[in-house]
Amino acid sequence: NTAADGSGTGFADRAEYGFSSSVTLFAQWKRVEYTVTFDANGGAGSMAAQVGYEPTSLTANVFARAGYRFAGWNTAANGSGTSYADRAQFPFSSSGTLYAQWSAEHTVTFDANGGIGSMSGQVEAFPAPLSANVFTREGYEFTGWNTAADGTGTAYPDGEVYSFSSSVTLFAQWAQVVYTVAFDGNGGVGTMDDQVAAGPAELRGNSFTRDGYRFAGWNTAADGSGTSYADRAQFPFSSSGTLYAQWSAEHTVTFDANGGVGSMSGQVEAFPAPLSANVFTREGYEFTGWNTAADGTGTAYPDGEVYSFSSSVTLFAQWAQVVYTVAFDGNGGVGTMDDQVAAGPAELRGNSFTRDGYRFAGWNTAADGSGTSYADRAQFPFSSSGTLYAQWSAEHTVTFDANGGIGSMDPQADIEPGALEANQFTRGGYTFTGWNTAANGSGAAYADRAQFPFSFSATLFAQWKRVEYTVTFEANGGGGSMMTQSGFEPTPLTANAFDRSGFAFAGWNTAADGSGAGYADRARFHFSASLTLHAQWAAEHTVTFDSNGGAGDMEPQVSAFPAPLSSSEFSREGYVFAGWNTAADGSGISYPEAAQFPFSSSVTLYAQWSAEHTVTFDPNGGTGIMSPQTGSTPGQLNGNAFTRDGYTFTGWNTKADGTGAAYEAGAVYSFGDDVTLFAQWKANGILPVLPATGGFVMASLLAFGFGLVSIIGGVTLRRRRRQEP
């Protein structure tokens, strides 16, 4: 076809073509398709053949066969060929017939075997899990299936896979249900056997005990949040479980005569109960009940009242008696206070008088303090009426001095011993250590918040101690020991004393892995905080020296850091040492003698040798002596030591007549070969001027080895002169 997609002009194979124009003809192709025919093979129904040319899923089976289940396809009717599952991938590489394969169905019949309920028979043709049991039997638990009603046949658990290779009746198997209750002391001590029953029964009596508690029954939850049961209560035994003993803490009521006489034992209970009857008496008083506060300001309980016993308490007997009055006198102070009336011991009212320059120091039955004293709010007997006089003490003041620190503190005034105010001063690089009556610490010392007499006024000076910080040295894989180092200002660190085989000490670091701040050995350390410095180690590497044809010995050089290489101690006759190389043939990395080497890995360095060559010096007509010069690398020629009368030395030449390679004095020679260098000479001086004759003038003689030129009377005369060597 004239178009690749077949949309142009078509031509059959070997068709006639006019060749009236050039054209491209595209081969046209038709895909080969294969057909699969489906055979019911004893089943019923029909299926269309399936055509394809590449691997494709087979058409789903629609054949059916009574009493059988479809089991896939096979290229042979008897199943001896190639098998394919329903909807399996088929290659479609050839045409053929696929035969339906069938598996016979079998039925499992379920028998309740004493139970109740109904279950349909299960029909399958292939192995499958058995239908879940739905039968029940009161007082029994289902335990599985069996091919015999009495359980002597083949057993199958509920849901077990059955082969369905034959039909069978399975009988439900039953086990009578027995439930167990375990008893837990739940903090108590003792033991109780589990109780087993198949139905409702009375619980055993509790035998656990617990100090300080009373047994309060059972509960299905340890914390009492479940179902509660009394001791020996009826229990359903409808399931197994644990009953937890419940405990009520015992609490004690202590009876206090509160001024009365007699004795009463404490009353201990764990549950609400009437209080024991009062047996205290008090002359001149009438018992009015109990109170949780001696002064009756707490909770009151009548005699015999029921108390919860949810907590322990002391109950104070309450008494009624004759009322007495106390009057308060300022005794030099100002202000007013109402009289206080009570029928028995009571706390005095708080003082409200004031007096400039004085602190209230309590009460006294005499104005001059010679009577009976009472503190502010002290307990007073109220056994008679009277007057209490305020007592006054002069105030004294403590002034706080920072003594080099900074900050401020108010003076502290008092009249009696008391704790000093906490220090508020600070001083950089110092720790506060207390107070002293002398700035230099030579006076009386007081700790922070110490008790001060306040019997005199004073200035207390802050005392300071310079803060020292500690550096702990850690070997970090090394061996040895080092003392900690303390300081309070920048100081060099203690020299390292740790060592580690195969490693060199590389300094310190605040982190073991070297990720912190680093410090060199003996580095200056600021000592502004305490910390641990971890030794840092660098692995040592060895350079082995190989004479590489030379003679002599050299010790290997070991280092963990870059260092100059050891000087060569090798020698080789007729050669000069030319450095080191990582390869014997010099093709590796080169290092000059004493070069800096990284020591980042171990290596063998091979001596490199340069053959020596000799320059022999020839005076070439001159006189004197010069020793031959030996070298293996380019170097400056030795200075000339020859002389020649009337001549000046002009350099060297590889040929005596100067036609070879020339070298100036002090030139660099390669020393790549042996050579003889001949001294080169230039004649010295100027020829005399010839006398003038007949008006002719003779020019000066030029003597540079080229000849003598004279001009006489305009005539040039040339005389050839022999070239001096």
How is the main sheet built? 5 strands, mixed
Number of domains: 10
Average pLDDT, all residues: 90
The total count of strands amounts to 65
CATH topology of the largest domain: Immunoglobulin-like
Measured on Cα atoms, how large is the radius of gyration?
Answer: 62 Å
Q: Quick one: CATH class of the largest domain?
A: Mainly Beta
Uncertain segments are: 686-725
Q: Which outline best applies?
A: flat
CATH level-four homologous superfamily name of the largest domain? Listeria-Bacteroides repeat domain
Given the helix and strand composition, which structural class is it? mainly beta
Layout of helices and strands:
Blueprint: E1 34-39, E2 50-52, E3 56-57, E4 68-74, E5 83-84, E6 89-90, E7 96-104, E8 106-111, E9 122-124, E10 128-129, E11 140-146, E12 155-156, E13 161-162, E14 168-176, E15 179-184, E16 195-197, E17 201-202, E18 213-219, E19 228-229, E20 234-235, E21 241-249, E22 251-256, E23 267-269, E24 273-274, E25 286-291, E26 300-301, E27 306-307, E28 313-320, E29 324-329, E30 340-342, E31 346-347, E32 358-364, E33 373-374, E34 379-380, E35 386-394, E36 396-401, E37 412-414, E38 418-419, E39 430-436, E40 445-446, E41 451-452, E42 458-466, E43 469-474, E44 485-487, E45 491-492, E46 503-509, E47 518-519, E48 524-525, E49 531-539, E50 541-546, E51 557-559, E52 563-564, E53 575-581, E54 590-591, E55 596-597, E56 603-611, E57 613-618, E58 629-631, E59 635-636, E60 647-653, E61 662-663, E62 668-669, E63 675-683, E64 708-712, E65 715-719
Parallel strand pairs: 1-7, 8-14, 15-21, 22-28, 29-35, 36-42, 43-49, 50-56, 57-63
Antiparallel strand pairs: 1-2, 3-6, 4-5, 4-7, 8-9, 10-13, 11-12, 11-14, 15-16, 17-20, 18-19, 18-21, 22-23, 24-27, 25-26, 25-28, 29-30, 31-34, 32-33, 32-35, 36-37, 38-41, 39-40, 39-42, 43-44, 45-48, 46-47, 46-49, 50-51, 52-55, 53-54, 53-56, 57-58, 59-62, 60-61, 60-63, 64-65
